[in-house]
Amino acid sequence: xxxxxxxxxxxxxxxxxxxxxxxPSSADLARAMTEGLSPETGRVAELGAGTGKLTRAILxxxxxxxxxxxxxxxxxxxxxxRRQFPGIKVVNAGAxxxxxxCAPGLGAVISGLPLxxxxxxxxxxxxxxxxxxxxxxGAFVQFTYGPRPPVDEKVRQTLGLSARRGEIVWxxxxxxxVYHFTRMAS
Length: 186
Ligand SMILES: C[S@@+](CC[C@H](N)C(=O)[O-])C[C@H]1O[C@@H](n2cnc3c(N)ncnc32)[C@H](O)[C@@H]1O
Hints:
By secondary structure, the chain is α/β, with parallel strands linked by helices. It has one domain (4-183): Vaccinia Virus protein VP39 (Rossmann fold). The chain has seven helices and seven strands. The chain has a seven-stranded mixed beta sheet, with helices on both faces. Strand 1 (44-47), helix 4 and strand 2 form a beta-alpha-beta unit. Helix 3 (27-33) packs across helix 4 (53-60). The radius of gyration is 15 Å and the shape is globular. The protein binds S-adenosylmethionine (SAM). The site of S-adenosylmethionine (SAM) has 23 residues, from helix 2 and helix 4.
């Protein structure tokens, strides 16, 4: 099995518009992205799992393998994920299919997607699908390398989402900030 880094770099060269990162997330970023998850979270979806850095951290928080579904567009990353985590469900499809792939009642959605590189319409489909499935207090967690929230303002406003800034992980390459998106109380 190739190392995570070798596989990641090969796919970065082949599909730069999909991978959009210099390296897999660090262990510290994976820990920050999964803060608050526990066996009580119930079912979790992960979007854009890559080589599985966030996947490992989600399971390390006590989420059962049978409660985890990951979406990943790249078939080679999917093979790698299936070999590492035989008990999880790996969906080789775009995260935009989440709304009609998972059952409602998700406790959290953890996303490593390059959301800000996507058109606003695609962001909207992904976020709408995720919030259609999330329990009322469930969060959509996303990291970003830039200074602004990683979901377009128009998408946040249309879906009535509030953004909470989480930890900034300076040791990640590049440094990354975690954001938690939840529905605003109506
Ligand atoms: C920045 S990498 C993050 C990988 C991993 N989560 C990490 O943190 O190390 C983005 C990942 O999203 C995947 N991806 C891009 N667009 C996608 C989409 N529409 N649906 C599912 N996965 C997608 C890419 O193939 C890549 O694995």
